[in-house]
Amino acid sequence: MNNINKHRRRLRHSINVLTLPDTIFVNTFRLNKAAFQYVLEQIRPKLKRNTRKSAITPTIKLATALRFFAQGSYQLSVGNDFNLSLAQPTVSKILSEVLDAMETTICKNWVTFQMSEDEEMECKRSFFERTGFPGIIGCVDGTHIKIIGPCKSSQHLYYNRKGFFSVNAMIICDHKMRIRYVDARHPGSGHDSLIWNTSRVRRFLEEKYEAGERNSWILGDAGYPLEPFLMTPYRSATEHSAESRYNSVHSKARNIVERVIGVLKSRFRCFLGARELHYDPQKITKIVNACAALHNICLHYNTYFPEDDLQTPFEEAENSAIINENEAGSSSEASRIRDVIKSNLSL
């Protein structure tokens, strides 16, 4: 065992991942080198310091975590990739350390729903020019992250309607495919509308509406409740009717969040349904938060993402078929707002 450890240390110190060719670097770690260096500088002060010559460097720690997010495989193979040369228990410790560092640095700075007035205007203008739907400041959808069954006392909560264990993550994006809000704290059995109703972003929008904010909406599918600040499709719209026209434009505008989820899961393949994550739900929440922030950083640093890599996660296809049964209880004001938008779209 000592010989194996010495061999791993020699391999680790003989390679610099930043010398990899750019294409291989992005394919391996999903960030380009500029984004990697930025994240490294942000999290470095939060990583444990060790003065031993054999200590694992911050660069290797970040590379290890990114390789796990990108590969969606097991920790043992991650440790062997590209001469990172780490034992599985070491990979596990590094992953926890890097996640904690990201949670207090890049997550809070790169995933925020707060928009300046100029950002809101740009978002509304972009959506309107592309689809003709006014006032959009974001689109929302839920996605299931497959996990192994948690402890028996809570397994029933995480067993979703599709027949596997998961957490249900709510994501809101803007016109540039940036993730503005993510909430991955809820078990897979929770419905999208429940997650929305208990979210901080709903309270934030409700407070803004009560303070006089108008003409700003999030778009959600039929699984979400119709509210003055959340526009959903009409149910059972007659073909060629004004309601049908509204639904078509609404769907075209909201499609961007489905694409964001597809890019997120294809870029960070630990989320793809072929393999479940082998962690407790609390740690999975941290992984989702970190990858959402990394997704935004990739956009900022123009990290190349090949279209051929884009996959439609298998569980997303059914989401639009889930009809929210509580629409009859939506406010008359929300219904009135939707009818006004419908009338303008049908002109």
Description:
- The protein is of the alpha/beta class.
- The chain folds into two domains: 2-104, no CATH class; 114-345, no CATH class.
- Helix content is 49%, strand content 10%.
- It contains 14 helices and five strands.
- The protein has helices spanning 2-14, 22-29, 33-43, 58-71, 75-80, 88-103, 106-110, 117-131, 155-158, 192-197, 200-210, 242-267, 281-300, 332-345; strands at residues 136-146, 166-173, 179-187, 217-219, 230-231.
- The protein has a five-stranded mixed beta sheet.
- A hairpin with a 5-residue loop joins β2 and β3.
- α4 (58-71) crosses α6 (88-103) and α6 packs across α13.
- The longest helix is centred in the C-terminal third of the chain and has 26 residues, at 242-267.
- It starts with a helix and ends with a helix.
- The model is unreliable at 1-8 and 314-321 (pLDDT under 50).
Please supply descriptive tags for the structure shown above.
2 domains, 10% strand, globular, disordered N terminus
